[in-house]
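Just wondering, can you check both lines?
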Amino acid sequence: MKKAFELLLRKSASFLKLCIFIDGIDELEGDHKDMAEFLHSLVSPQVKLVVSSRPINPCLIVFEDCPSLRLQDLTKNDMEIFVKENLVGHRSMAELIDLYPSQAGELVSEIKMKAEGVFLWVKIVVKLLVDGLEDGDDMEDLQRKLLLLPPDLKDLYRRMIGKIPPDYQTQAAQIFRIFHTWNGLMESEPLTVIALSFATRDPSEISRQKVANLGPEALSWLCSTTEARIRSRCCGLLEIHKKVTNSQSQNLVVGYLHRTVAEFLTSDDVWLEICAMTGGGFDPFQHLTSACLSIMKVAHDFEDPILRLNLIYTTALCRTAKSFPDQTMQHHINTIDETMKQHQYNLRAGGGTDLTNAEPH
């Protein structure tokens, strides 16, 4: 491959100019010195490279004579503002600063130094320390907690997962699997908090659920309880975001804290652990299908766009799932049929749109 690339550059030198961006060459599972020397050798009037790396020795030595910048020098002031606003400005922390001013200053300095310019690391660590403050940690507890937090993001994620209470581990793993399955199938449509709320229930509940619109109070309660479950179960790796929609019940969606969380959770060893936590009988497709059917049942009426949207989601999930028995598939089809009929009947009975000439659902 090296020879092929060198040949490409030589043959195209008269008409082609390249600028190549490579992120995180320190993450290479191989010879960092060889990689750095190869990249350095490519530079010419026709080829520019911009590479990023943690400050590991092979890269520092090979790129010593190249223009460079350190991320922590650029983000230092922003991180200081963030720490002051979110940690130093906390009421409990202000009390500790009055009691231990020098230790508090050392704590803030240690956060910035340990972060090595990675703003996400600061965000996560400040949240963990604030959680500790609200749980009654004193200055010594905070210092010890910061000392034990690893500077590498992936190690930090693993530590966060390890801190999930045993009672919540199965539920957390189920949420991660449900969320990952949805993202793999519906890349352009984020998972709503309402859908996740229904997806965490027993799929058999769909049989007992009536076709009836949920009022705003019930929807608000579902959203708030699901948000609380995500916060307590998923250790900050999943977050709730607001999305601009026409429906109040669909404007809260679930997202990863950062794209690196997705990479961490789906790495082979971590994903095997997550799947083991849920047990062999857990099927995220079954839970998501039941969730979409539930949303169809609680749609406002036959003309509600949420009804048709979740009809599409349900059929897509049924089409993609590999483990649905024929009996289950038939049950889902019957549920779709009965739900659509009931919504259509309710529209006619309520004096809504004239459906006499409309095609059957």
